Amino acid sequence: MRAHRARRAFTLVELLVVIAIIGILVALLLPAIQAARESARRQQCSNNLKQLALAAINHHDVAGHFPTGGWGWNWVGDPDRGFSNKQPGGWVFNLMPFTEENSRYQSASDGNPENITTKQLDAVRSIVVNPLPLIDCPSRRPGQVFDKPANGLFIAFNSAQNPADGNVAGRSDYAINAGDRNYTYTSKMPAGTAAGAPHQNYDSAKDFSWNWSPTGTPVIPLPPFQPKPLSTNYLTGISFQHSEVGNKHVTDGTSHTYLIGERYLNPTNYETGLENSDNETWCTGFNNDNFRCAFDPPEQDRPGVSYENRFGSVHSGGWFVSWCDGHVESVNYDIDLLVHRGNANRADEGSPYGSP
Fold first, then answer.
1. Which has the closest alpha carbon to 98: 48, 66, 59, 130?
2. Do the Cβ atoms of 136 and 144 come closer than 8 Å?
3. Quick check: 172 pLDDT over 90?
4. Model-level pTM?
């Protein structure tokens, strides 16, 4: 009879050693995995801006100018009003037909550019709470639909109200270039400034006195609290209230002028809707939610710190921006301020705001 040798099992010490080795390997690999994931997210963010830039260029080919900035934060888009400065909605809404979203864009059409019907009100609200995937930086915050505590259930004069049990709105991580002046919104807009019930028509815009011409020339003097410009009170960017800016106005060259970039946000309020520059919607007209300027330097997102007008991002090292010729770059946060301003001014001829 042969004797059977007993199987030798792992000792507790050997098991702990194996676990420790696995832990060390995981610790070594995890940063590399996270870095690879962040690299993929950064690439996606850059691709988003590339697609938005191409859409803006296609918009220019069709309309003759870059997307208008709309009227202000109390208005969103209406497809029946076209692409001119008669369009109340912001730049992102105007790019929908050029980002394979034309069917959804047209869903808000009632065929009547002067009146606002119930069909349009309901369809526009559906668009507001379902933002484009292209306006989401995957490194920043999951999803793009968050609470909207500002102005109660009101969304816009040409949108249905939010329901009490679903007061949310879609938001964007990107902003279009409004220039190098410290100005990305105005309280002067058709229908006044107070939020209220939806309107039945656009009569308030028919004889409205705008602050600027479609190319940013001041119609009336700017308020005294605004910084004095180099020589004129122009709005110097690509899109702003009531704008129609085309390549012919970008005399610094399309490859030297910002188009659309990432915007700074306070991480404390990524999802609360309590930040003054992140409390409206992605379809909103001229407003610091969707427009930024280069008066101040760009910044990386910092918890508890609010900058309402700055470009920036959550990425370490720099923020992505597309230029008017369609190319995309990562720009360092420590970019010289005068260079930054010069990149945002479409026609400074080498003398950015603040130059001696």
1. 59
2. yes
3. yes
4. 0.88
